[in-house]
Amino acid sequence: MPVVSAGGAGATRSVVKGGAAGLVGAAVAAGSQFLIVVAVTRGFDARTAGCFFTATTVCLMAAGVLRLDCGNGLIYFIAGAHTATPAQEPTPAGRATLRVSTSATPAMPAAPRGYLRAALLPVVILSFAVAALVVAYADALATALTHTATSLPHSATSLTPATTSLTPAVTGPPPTVAGLTPATTSPSPVTTGPAHVVLGTTAAPSPGADPAVVLLGAALRGLGLALPVIVLADILVSATRGFGVMRPTALLSGVLQPGAQLLLVGAVVLAGASGVGEGTRTPGSASGTGWLLAAAWAAPALPVLALSAFWLRRRMPTGPYVPRAARAFWRYTGPRAVGGAAQAVFQRLDVVVVAVLAGPAQAALYTAATRFKVVGQLVNQGFAQAAQPRLVRAMAEGDLPLARRLYQMTTMWLVLLTWPVWLGYAVLAPWLLRAFGDGYPDGAAVAVVLAATMMLATACGMADVMLIAAGHTAASTANILSAIAVTVALDVALVPSHGALGAALGWSGGMFAKNLMPLVKIARLYGLRPFGAHSLPSLRLWRAEEAT
């Protein structure tokens, strides 16, 4: 049995406690997101649901790019302040110039407040600029996202693209609010000319406009207005983890935001089912529905932003500004900003590609069939958020035994917690997907691809997190860009003929590349492997003798 130092055991137990808090938040978030998809797919037809999912996906991709990875940068500098001497600025882990003082006081120096200002200024400027562009050109973007699929041929597959078979079942009397007329294999393109756009407003939609395009444009415009709030809320919540605590993240991002989204989006769906308004039958009513759905989904980011800012204000001491804070922060975060943007695009690109190449209905099918992948992503995120600050410290101090222990421990728990979910989902997918309505069980083949891919990815553990903690941000960025290239190449080849299944295969190829490349690199450079001497002992962490 491996011998563990008191410090190593304490860090391990801290990660387990933080991981447990992260898992609670992940469970609530995953459940809420699943129920949001159920509500939207059953409350609207597949094409309308696909437009909404496409809009939120574009918003999340834009937010991921605009964050510039400042959240992880702040985690690094705030966590590093606990190990660096007061006169020393934290530098990327693994560099030869890093000197750590084990006797440094754990009190937070004044410098992190300067790092926070350095991080937020460019993010605020870019977020408002992009928000203005999205609001101004929302209709043109909506047309681009939905028009391509109408001109592409589709082969006859079990996942028939955008047919009436995807229309969710409706029982009882016909509702007063109907979804869009189910798209045929040749949906009518938008009949209106270029939109006459004024910043923040658009001309009333033409009676001949495609209601799906109108809804998507309205949703994009509403989400564009909320984009700066969504971006800043995520960064500030991430910054709280630099203090080594998971509670703000679990409560704000794990419970408050997704829970409020579920309640508000559910209220919009129920209001439509109760006959309030005209749903999406006409372009005018589609615009109103798009605005309401976007507002319901985005509004919870505002209290999250306010509460996280209040928490940080109480924790960060006042003090003099560090002149070199911005340069030090962006010297570390700048290269990773590209990687963070690539990661955000990689996680959600598949939904947009399906919408563009196969249509909104197939995007709805793909979103429903892959909704369970959020379970694995959030579980992995919960452990990563808890372990990342301690991995940064371990790698900064050259403590490879502790880093190895944390890596193998988190990998073992990820496999233990997620593999039963993936196996069950692969077997039960035809029945589970019925929750989304008629036609969605056709995504069972997508579910099998998803399950097999996520099992392999989970077995690799947090390889990319380990690579970043070791200071190899450029290598991490190159890996993710390679994974995106693989995904796009496979999607372009497979989606036009196989729809959602083709997108799943493309995403699977990208995931293989994304996980195997960092795994090989950390094994070669540091001898770090996802399984080893600490794997089985990590399952008995509650036994006192494991800390001796």
Describe the model.
It is a single chain. The chain is globular, with a radius of gyration of 24 Å. The chain has helices at 6-43, 46-66, 70-80, 111-136, 138-147, 211-240, 247-273, 283-298, 301-315, 325-358, 360-369, 373-396, 400-432, 444-459, 463-469, 473-526, and strands spanning 197-198, 201-202. A hairpin with a 2-residue loop joins strand 1 and strand 2. Helices cover 68% and strands 1% of the residues. Helix 1 runs parallel beside helix 13. The chain has a two-stranded antiparallel ribbon with strand order 1-2. It has 16 helices and two strands. The chain is mainly alpha-helical. Its main location: membrane. The chain crosses the membrane at residues 20-40, 118-138, 212-237, 249-271, 291-312, 413-433, 445-468, 480-507. Residues 177-191 have a biased composition (Low complexity). This is Polysaccharide biosynthesis C-terminal domain-containing protein. Keywords: Cell membrane, Membrane, Transmembrane, Transmembrane helix.
Helix content: 55-70%
The unreliable regions are 1-9, 84-110, 150-203, 274-279, 542-548
The secondary structure category is: mainly alpha
Main pleated-sheet profile: 2 strands, antiparallel
Distance between the termini: 10 Å
Shape: globular
Strand order of the largest sheet: 1-2
**Tally of separate helices:** 16
Percent of residues in beta strands: under 5%
Tell me the radius of gyration.
Answer: 24 Å
Please, what is the average pLDDT? 75
Order of helices and strands: HHHHHEEHHHHHHHHHHH
The overall strand count is 2
